[in-house]
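Box 3.1. Reading complex inputs
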Amino acid sequence: MANHASMAAAFIKDEARVNWHDETLWYVRHKRDLAAVKIPEWEQLRELASEIKNHTLSHLDDYLVEFEKRATENGIIVHWAVDAQEHNDIIWNLIRSNNISRVVKSKSMLTEECHLNEYLSNRGIKVVDTDLGEYIVQLREESPSHIVLPAIHLRKEDVGKTFHEHLKTEQGNSDPQYLAEAARQSMRWKFIHSEMAITGVNFAIAETGGFVVCTNEGNADMGAHAAGIHVACMGIEKIIPRTEDLGVFLRLLARSATGQPITTYSSHFHKPRRGQEMHVIIVDNGRTRQLGNPDFRNSLKCIRCAACFNTCPVYRKSGGHSYHSPVAGPIGAILNPNLNRRQNADLPFASTLCGSCSNVCPVKIDIHEQLWKWRQDLTKEGYVTKSKKAGMKGMAWILSSPARYRMAGRVVRIVLRFFPSLVPIRDLNPWYKQREMPAAPNQSFREWYLKNKK
Amino acid sequence: MNAREIILGSVAINKPAPAICPETLISSNKNRSGLIDEFIQMNRVAGGSVIETDELELIKKDINQSVKNREYFVNTISAVGQKNKDINEFSDAFSLASVHKVYMRSKLGVAENGSVWLGESDLVNRLLPFICEHLVIVLDSNSIVSNMHDAYKRIKADEEGYGVFISGPSKTADIEQSLVIGAHGPRSLLIYLV
Amino acid sequence: MTVYLFVPCYIDQFYPQVAIATCQLLGKLGCKVIFPLNQTCCGQPMANSGFAHLTSGCSANFVRNFSEADYIVSPSGSCVLHIKEHLNDENEQAGKHIRDRIFELTEFLVDILNVGKLEAFFAHRVGLHVACHGQRGLHTASMTELVSPSFSKPEKLLNMVEGIQLFYPERKDECCGFGGTFCVFEEAVSVKMGRDRLSEHKSNAVEFITSTDSSCLMHLEGILKREKSNIRIRHIAEILNGSDRRES
């Protein structure tokens, strides 16, 4: 099974591409810094956002009930889905009972998590992803590599080739303006003809029963206001208590994500337009399990800004596909093991625990601390190789005894002096592949101390 | 047990001990001219443009030009000209597909991000400000507030069935982080600040 | 003032000069230095790899060696942070006593000894690598992610060294890629991260690179030596102690 380490190594082989990927995403982090520093009360906002989310999670059932009540009063039809299967079934039932064939979808990580597109495709419905980045990767039959910038792993030449193949743009023309215009023209009539528009939910407001969707392209609105049915999909954790809380979250979201003070469109939906049906699907899919775990429940505060991706040197230098999940990056590494241990046991180890992610998180998720805790849980549950386990047990045995530790140290230093690479064959010693071993001094500090100080 | 009961039951068992909800008391004391300058600058950064004017004559001239150019435009502001009788909340996407320009009035602007708030009644039709090629907004400069906290104090977001903050023309940087103005929504946003 | 010296296992074995410099420096600044002879390892390499449950032996040994100390000082931010956050001996009182009294070297010099000047000379172009665990975990310096006043304890001390020219890389506090066992289990990413840090230091034409953590330096030095670079590594203790000679 491909894991992060091997996929990262493959990504890094193309040095020009990884350098471009790294610099581009670092620039997005830099723009975030510039935006944050303009707000003197930035750290206060983060604290507020964190506390609002902590409070909400502690009263989550009450807020969900309140949201449902108000939304229903306003004419929105509210559905509940225990897992991805139920979520997908609800959408399929709406499609079937309304004889729908043309579906557009704006960005929703939840629908990626539920593999909705694949599910509907198996039933003969080809959903069109309308966010430009998602549209590009959809045409290429790839998955998005970043939750805000889905096509960040691609160069414009890659997009040019894809559009030439699918949209009949000029061969060899990779001008972004030209390509985006082609996408606009192609997409426009898909919006106009659409029968169902699926969107995500950035924030759902308990107090009013409404929800907010943020985009720069306007694609969520183009679909939602054209189609006869609007389906908005949300995880249970998207709830916030009051409208005034939007002030805090909307000030933090776009600045953290891209360095903009706000996205071009922040759409507030409260009632269906007359003659339209509006549905909201509230989804669990493992979130209540995460909620019940004091070590990891903070991860549910996430507002999907991807600031942690942009700051993480491991993400920048290994690419989103190395995380083999819809949500990559540091937040993915603490969310995904909850969804599937076996597939995602490698992710919490794809980190040096530097802590930068926790600092950029607008809702103060202790990401790097949760990465450490996941390592403990996954190891105790057995998701570790026999050799690593044996090696660690050996290490613990040696290092816990002064006499054994000193003996081992002496032996290693002697071996290093005669066999500088430790093992003549590079492949068995990963350190030695691209680095020299440390030099072996004649005496340890303790030996020096005994000679000179006692 | 249905899904609702299962989920709510699961939340009830798993939720943490109660934590207090903080007060969100942040506002700022900028003087009026500071707010207007900031609004103009932030809107420009987002790709929009702002024209300051004392009266509505300039906007009427804009509309007359659209008439001369034989553009299909929609005006929703009675003060500047005749409102389109043929456009209402029930107009569908097909009938709006060839709208070139739309004129709307906003009741609130936000200085920290250069955005304007449009409620459903300002829009007439929800799709209108998205499907047109060019969006023109009329905004009273006295209705500019400092930040989003102040904005939410002024508007009642759920007063109508739909409302939106718009901060500029539609855009995308999804192709190699190259900024392209005019993604799926309008290619330009012009604000007349009166 | 009596100070117990906590020497990380890999410094004891591979970089004794760092501990020697720390010992001498503390002595010069008026401290009586005690080195508990039976210390081994804090347990961090196992704990960070998911095996914290195997570190009780290391923790117990640490407590045995350091529970009498008024101050414990170590030339390693990551090891000090590990003790503060993950020391897991059953003697909770001793654990608390230790956590309240353990300091990384630059923390100790600035916050406890209030060092205002140093008798040190190092007339070289020096790149300062900001080690993550000390910086973000122990707050030895401000962090570029946060909107807060700028400060740095290591920088403050280095600026007291005569003749030194200090340079930060462009990405002031990006991780070097060592990360404990990460450096072997994710070797490709680890080395790429290290190389990227080094290329920024090279842009500043530094002669030396220094840091509060020898783990970072060991990783960077490994890469530099493989490249046959002229840039040399010095732990901050060695520079602050005034020596600019070292056995190669």
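In summary: Chain A touches chain C through 73 residues (CB under 8 Å).
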